Amino acid sequence: MMDGGNMKEMMQRMMSDVLPPGIDPALLPTPTSEGAKLLNLYCAQCHNLPGPGMHTAREWPPVVDRMNRRMRMMSGRGMMGMMMGRVEAPSESELQELVNYLQVHAQIPIDTTRYPELDTPAGRAFHTACSRCHALPDPQQHTTDEWPGVVARMKQNMVAMGKSVPDEASIGEIVQFLQRHASKQE
Q1: Is the pTM here over 0.90, yes or no?
Q2: What is the C-alpha to C-alpha distance for residues 158 and 113, in angstroms, rounded to an integer?
């Protein structure tokens, strides 16, 4: 029977080209909220902690449904539960709280009609690099000061997932593109 640590290790090995490294629970939006606690409690049983920005609000419900079916299957006393170790599955109310949290803090996809600059070298570099893993984010999700850190974290994710990383000139263009269109809130 596997324990939680072995389960995470196995899942990460099996899906290393799909799963990003995960984030520190303290970096979740509203980290002390019930939704953040549920995300850490249930999702981190089998793989690294996903950030809500990994998917759009529309994408999260089917992802959560698929993961919940797996948790329920592995929480049983049957062969799967015995082989994989005891995995806890959320109640219906916890599941709804989790989906609500993920949707509130989900990736906001870019409205391409608002950004004609996507058809420039910087815009194309942004599209090529970022759309390999997730929906293109709306640049106004973050401030000018936040974007370099977000891009640096995504670059680390690319390395961890074995994806090719754009050269430093392209990274610079991507950051500049995002900063030009960033939220003005500081």
Answers
A1: no
A2: 27
Owning domain of residue 153: 112-180
User: How far is 54 from 63, CA to CA, in rounded Å?
Assistant: 11
Per-residue DSSP letter, 41: I
pLDDT digits (tens, 9 = 90+) for 105-158: 999 999 999 999 999 999 999 999 999 989 999 999 999 999 999 999 999 989
Asked whether residue 186 is assigned to any structural domain, the reply reads no
Q: Is residue 167 part of a domain?
A: yes
**Residue 87: Cβ within 10 Å count:** 20
Alpha helices in the chain (DSSP H): 4-14, 34-38, 60-75, 79-84, 92-104, 121-130, 147-160, 168-180
Specify which residues 109 forms β-bridges with.
137
CB within 8 A of 48, min separation 6: which ones? 8, 12, 19, 20, 21, 22, 23
Neighbouring residues of 93: CB distance < 8 A, sequence distance ≥ 6: none
Tell me which amino acid residue 165 is. Answer: V
Split into its structural domains, the chain has a count of: 2
